[in-house]
């Protein structure tokens, strides 16, 4: 029973982290048709800024998180304007090359600024303890991550389903040309969505630093993991990303607990199987 | 353009005499060219993107290494074994990968390579695990040319393999099979409409690419006398793809130019500044995409004033 609960809590927390980072990637890939390999770079930028603000400046965890979110979005906006806007028009291969070049530059910048060591973000008192549920105890950090993930999912759902921006965004994902011919300012939507995705990646990067430790090579190390979430969820589908992230998070955590030696093989094998059965992802459009 | 391959061979031969102290590095470039050529067959000819070519490269390397240790240390036989291992793995995984396309296909190629990496990592008794496969001692090439300490034999051996692979791929590219691959690349639907067995052509192309990559891996195993887990890594697959796109896809010599450029810049930048060389690589890659989107092979065209 304990084991089961551990798997559940750790798996869901891990899944929420994957969701926060991958959802922006999924939406930008669905919306802008860009293979954005640099997306993990935004989680790295967020983590680095948080480390800098929390440890170097001594502002603490929450201020670090705020700096990370604001800073990453402030970097993402001009980047979208100057670089990505041109990349949209490229062929697929050129997109791969351009975004991997960007990733290299992000890594090199962080490496130059903070070195290649592990960038820790010390947890505050409130998160670094265990919560007593009466019948058992759980680490507060995991619960906070799960709560944050659920809030993000709810917020995104409300944003997309209940607001005018959401309607326009969905229209643009469905058919960019028609959306723009109906007078929707797709350029603005791209920019806002891109910044939002980058901000969420930063949030996931900082909150998930305990599970996916941050150093300069973070974007390359976890690039495949994030892409797997997008592919399994289905490009451009937020619900799909959520289901895929939670499912894969639980799957990998369960495999690690139950069969540590075969965990990676089990994970990859099942992912392969899933992609063969559902080539467009769980909830992807055909 | 007809004599371009000869220019390459002449340059490679000249490099042997001009940089006698860098033979190990030059040989690494040659081995990498074989891998990048295999990606060009799959991506450039057939239009199927792959980020998992290291799977076949590593399979060839381990197969050739194990064959040399346990069965027969003849280099040419080892190349054949490596090629067969790469082809076998590519055929089996190609049956799955070619059913899908786009992101899913790319992810499947990555997954296959990661699975191979994990197996090689776990099967420590056979592969040496993280320590690498050691103790490969090759017999002389064709019984005549022994591998020497400085790597002279290795260099010529690798150069000849590159030439043979290049020529074979050039012939395939002009053969009806290569033409049908280009047809599939241009328009899958039309090829289907005229009755071409698109799926099996793609599987065959993937298998051939796997054989070439396996030969490259076998070459690496024989010359460096070591097979490490890195031969199966995602980084290797990604770098091969970057080099190909840098050079330009679909025309073979793009693979050669891209590999030479990337590895030379990488080598020099890393030697000059071991900490910040990634700036140079990232900057070069970005600049290339923005100024020469079709790769280095379009440089002449761009200089003549016609940008596409």
From TrEMBL, chain A:
Taking the record's annotation, the residue ranges forming a coiled coil are none
One GO CC term, this protein:
plasma membrane
Taxonomic superkingdom = Bacteria
Q: Which residues cross the membrane?
A: 6-27, 34-53, 59-79, 100-123, 143-160, 188-212, 224-251, 258-277
Give the Gene Ontology MF terms in alphabetical order: transmembrane transporter activity
Gene Ontology BP annotations: amino acid transport
Q: Which residues form the signal peptide?
A: none
Main location per the UniProt record: membrane
Regarding protein family, the annotation reads: Belongs to the binding-protein-dependent transport system permease family. LivHM subfamily.
Q: Which UniProt keywords apply?
A: Amino-acid transport, Cell membrane, Membrane, Transmembrane, Transmembrane helix, Transport
Keyword field contains Disulfide bond: no
Tell me the compartments it is located in: Cell membrane
The organism named in the record is: Pseudoprimorskyibacter insulae
* InterPro entries found in the cross-reference section: ABC_transp_permease, BCAA_transport_permease
Protein name, per record: High-affinity branched-chain amino acid transport system permease protein LivH
The UniProt gene name for this protein comes to livH_6
Membrane topology classification? Multi-pass membrane protein
UniProtKB/TrEMBL annotation, chain B:
Topology class, membrane: Multi-pass membrane protein
Example GO molecular function: branched-chain amino acid transmembrane transporter activity
Q: What do the Gene Ontology cellular component annotations say?
A: plasma membrane
Main location per the UniProt record: membrane
Q: Which residues form the signal peptide?
A: none
Q: Could you confirm whether the keyword Cell membrane appears in this record?
A: yes
Keyword Transmembrane helix carried by entry: yes
TM regions (residue ranges): 25-48, 79-98, 105-123, 155-177, 198-220, 277-299
Where it sits in the cell: the answer is:
Cell membrane
What domain of life is recorded for the organism?
Answer: Bacteria
Q: Alphabetically list the UniProt keywords.
A: Cell membrane, Membrane, Transmembrane, Transmembrane helix
Q: What is this protein called?
A: High-affinity branched-chain amino acid transport system permease protein LivH
Biological source species? Pseudoprimorskyibacter insulae
The organism's taxonomy opens as: Bacteria, Pseudomonadati, Pseudomonadota, Alphaproteobacteria, Rhodobacterales
């Amino acid at each position: 029973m304990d084991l089961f609960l551990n798997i559940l809590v750790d798996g869901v927390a891990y899944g929420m982290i994957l969701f926060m980072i991958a959802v922006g990637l999924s939406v930008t890939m669905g919306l802008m048709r860009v293979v954005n390999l640099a997306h993990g770079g935004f989680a790295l930028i967020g983590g680095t800024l948080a480390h800098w603000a929390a440890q170097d400046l001594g502002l603490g965890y929450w201020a670090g998180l705020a700096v990370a979110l604001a800073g990453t979005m402030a970097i993402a906006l001009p980047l979208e304007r100057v670089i990505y806007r041109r990349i949209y028009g490229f062929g697929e291969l050129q997109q791969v090359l351009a975004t991997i070049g960007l990733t290299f530059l992000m890594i090199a910048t962080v490496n130059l600024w903070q070195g290649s060591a592990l960038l820790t973000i010390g947890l505050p008192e409130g998160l670094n303890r265990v919560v007593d549920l009466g019948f058992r105890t759980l680490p507060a950090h995991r619960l906070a991550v799960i709560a944050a993930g659920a809030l993000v999912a709810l917020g995104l759902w409300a944003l997309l389903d209940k607001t005018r921006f959401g309607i326009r965004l969905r229209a643009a994902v469905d058919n960019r040309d028609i959306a723009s011919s109906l007078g929707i300012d797709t350029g603005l939507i791209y920019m806002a969505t891109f910044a939002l995705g980058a901000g969420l990646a930063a949030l996931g990067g900082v909150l998930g630093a305990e599970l996916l430790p941050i150093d300069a090579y973070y974007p390359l190390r976890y690039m495949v993991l994030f892409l797997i979430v997008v592919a399994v969820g289905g490009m451009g589908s937020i619900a799909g990303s959520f289901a895929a992230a939670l499912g894969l998070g639980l799957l990998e955590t369960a495999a690690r607990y139950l069969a540590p030696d075969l965990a990676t093989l089990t994970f990859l094998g099942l992912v392969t199987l899933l992609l063969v059965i559902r080539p467009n992802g769980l909830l992807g459009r055909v | 353009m007809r004599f371009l391959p000869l220019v390459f061979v002449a340059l490679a031969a000249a490099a042997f005499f001009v940089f006698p102290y860098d033979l190990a590095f030059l040989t690494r470039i040659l081995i990498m060219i074989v891998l990048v050529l295999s990606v060009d067959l799959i991506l450039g000819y057939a239009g199927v993107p792959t980020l998992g070519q290291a799977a076949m490269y590593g399979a060839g390397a381990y197969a050739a290494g194990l064959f040399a240790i346990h069965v027969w240390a003849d280099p040419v036989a080892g190349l054949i074994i490596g090629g067969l291992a790469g082809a076998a793995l590519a055929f089996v995984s190609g049956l799955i990968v070619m059913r899908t396309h786009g992101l899913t296909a790319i992810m499947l190629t990555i997954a296959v390579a990661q699975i191979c990496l994990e197996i090689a990592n776990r099967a420590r008794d056979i592969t040496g695990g993280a320590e690498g496969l050691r103790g490969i001692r090759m017999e002389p090439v064709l019984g005549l040319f022994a591998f020497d300490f400085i790597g002279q034999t290795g260099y010529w051996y690798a150069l000849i393999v590159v030439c043979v692979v290049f020529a074979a791929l050039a012939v395939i590219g002009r053969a009806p099979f290569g033409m049908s691959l280009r047809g599939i690349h241009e328009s899958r639907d039309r090829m289907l409409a005229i009755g071409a067995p698109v799926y099996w052509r793609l599987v065959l192309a993937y298998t051939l690419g796997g054989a070439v990559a396996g030969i490259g891996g076998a070459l690496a195993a024989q010359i460096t006398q070591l097979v490490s887990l890195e031969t199966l890594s995602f980084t290797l697959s990604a770098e091969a793809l970057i080099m190909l796109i840098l050079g330009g896809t679909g025309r073979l010599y793009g693979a050669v130019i891209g590999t030479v450029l990337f590895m030379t810049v990488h080598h020099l930048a890393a030697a000059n500044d071991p900490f910040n060389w990634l700036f140079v690589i990232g900057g070069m890659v970005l600049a290339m995409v923005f100024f020469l989107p079709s790769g280095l092979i379009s440089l002449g065209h761009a200089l003549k004033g016609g940008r596409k």
